[in-house]
Specification:
The protein is α/β, with parallel strands linked by helices. It folds into 3 domains: 7-318, Polyphosphate kinase middle domain (polyphosphate kinase like, 2-Layer Sandwich), CATH 3.30.1840.10; 329-504, Endonuclease Chain A (Endonuclease, Chain A, 2-Layer Sandwich), CATH 3.30.870; 511-694, Endonuclease Chain A (Endonuclease, Chain A). 38% of the residues lie in helices and 22% in strands. The strands form 6 sheets. Strands 20-28-26-25-21-22-23-29-30 form a 9-stranded mixed beta sheet, sandwiched between helices. Helix 2 (18-33) runs antiparallel to helix 3, helix 3 (40-69) packs antiparallel against helix 5 (84-116) and helix 17 (516-532) runs parallel beside helix 18. The longest helix is centred in the N-terminal third of the chain and has 33 residues, at 84-116. The chain is globular, with a radius of gyration of 27 Å. Residues 6-11, 241-249 and 258-262 have low confidence and may be disordered.
Length: 695
Amino acid sequence: MEEQTTQSTEVTNRYFDRDLSWLTFNYRVLKEAQSNDVPLYERLKFLAIYSANQDEFFRVRVANLRNYIKLDKKKINKALDYDPIELLKKIHERIHNQLIEYGDTLRSKVLVELEKNGVFILSPEQLNEDQKSASLYFFKTKVLSFLQPYVFGFSSREPFLNNRELYFALRLQNKYSGTIEFAYLNIPSNVLPRFFQLPSPNVQFHYMFLDDIIRMNLDFVFPDYEVLECQSIKMNKDADLNIEDEFSGDLVEKIERQIEKRNLGVPSRFLYDFTTSDILLKFLADSFDLIDEDLVSGGHYHSLFDFFQLPNPIGKAIEYEPLTPLRNIKIDQHRSIFSAIDESDQMLHFPYHTYNYVLQFFNQAAIDPHVREIKVTFYRMAQDSLIGNALMSAAKNEKKVTVFMELKARFDEENNLRWAERMQKAGIKIIYSIPGLKVHAKVALVKKKTESGLIKNYCFFGTGNLNEKTASLYADHGLLTCDEEMCDELDDLFKFLYKRKEPAKFKSLLVSQFNIIDAFTALIDREIAHAKAGREGHIIIKLNNLEEKGMIDKLYEASRAGVRIEMIIRSICCLVPGVPGMSENITVRRIVGRFLEHSRIIWFHNDGEDELYMGSADWMKRNLMGRIEVKFPVKDKELRNQVRELLRVQLKDNTKAVMLDENINNIPIEKKKGQRLYNAQLDTYHTIKRWEELE
């Protein structure tokens, strides 16, 4: 079933709504779970990704809309160009339809295929006697001690549901008095596996939900009651850290306090089983002070991102065939990564290249006796960060190490705080978040003393986080360079971050807060001038999100002037493509595959003298105006040609790419009979492999 929309409901004048646009992206993720060319276990993962994405959407975006609704209507009309109540209705309607399709995909397709492969998720009614005994033993020895029943009216504490945790809501009848009571009971999936493996026949693998093990044994928890109704529920709460004043006092302490309060946030979604009775639902709504907009009906099981936990006993046959990480031959020809950079700029493409080269950059800097100083920004650190460990080694080796740690990276605040404390104890100078400003740039600088006694700078510029864990899942790029102007400008940026010293004018780097909007506007204007002069005007833009209206308007202007604009936008796209007189020269593709497309690349034809910028910034208001972001030029012509070729590969995709139409629909690319199938990510891997074999 294709989800179709009409322009009248989804487009406000010149722009798609950002939230409805994002929902079409998540719907594209759901379609990947339905794709027969995706291995079965990976389809299950796409269902998990869809669920995790939607969970975050409610914690953040829907929570924001709920906050707007509470404002005075005059303030709403002044602040917004849309009605949040009307938008919320559209969101709930869209998600309701998607969840119906999600449930059908899970039950009728993915689980059926798993059973054909000998993997069964059993319901209580399907258990044999041995399995019943095993589940009962597990319940008594492992589960029971984690259960915390709450009967309304019989407890001195107030009823409280933890954010994102699973519960049962129950309607009970006292066996002795006959009175009706209400209760809730936690499902401890935060401390126990969500799936329990049962004894099973040969060549079969049987599992059951933790939820069902508890359902089967409710008489142990409520011995004095008959269970009339037991329904799964879950509450999402506003996940934003509400720091009213970042400019006074200790920002670190404020963030720590807000992390502790995150579980106390305002409800943004109350998810319940669609079979829940009106009696039970009304009682829960009254007890937890919920309004109709909070209530979202769902299936029998919630938090299905836990499918990530379901074991794969079949093995590689139902997973993607692994791609062996590629070596960079140019770097391998040198004993030191710094001598490789001395010879020429080095470009790495992740996860196709091994991430070990980035680790090598930091590890060699940590032990090289000529390295004097290391500076780095972190936005999302890996929990067991090898880069963090390398920096601590560098500090122990008496090198000056300075780390800018962004503490306001949503959902990574706690991990970043923990790492900051560890590194500080190891002798690293830690600079924390700038009040009112997020630092999203992914950059590092190494200062090394040369044989002549001068200091030479080496830099890493990335499109993705300095995080070796996500690097295996996200499609990103990194540049290693010793270009003097780029390195000096990055050093100036670090001085701004550390000392708030106003940098000199940036000439090579495009940095938000300083020159990024003016620079991109000028680059687009140049393509407009080429087109008006009868020359070819051509721009290729690859982003995660496109939302900033000023940049969108500039692209509309370029389209009207005859500039051909090809866009690859993964998630949010507020630009409306293909509208005569406005955007008829603009196409928008969306690629969803085995890796998360995460890089940001902007290419300008410039009458054959092309320019190309890469970096951390999406074209969103927050990135261009409310953060520190860095876009870096690719000056080396050979590397620039390689990135341009990778963009061509992406634009050829006719299997994992869809076109976004003027009504915000994902339109599959029509394939003619006998036409070759192009898969951007697999073709990217083989393209890079071919380059490395030619070196």
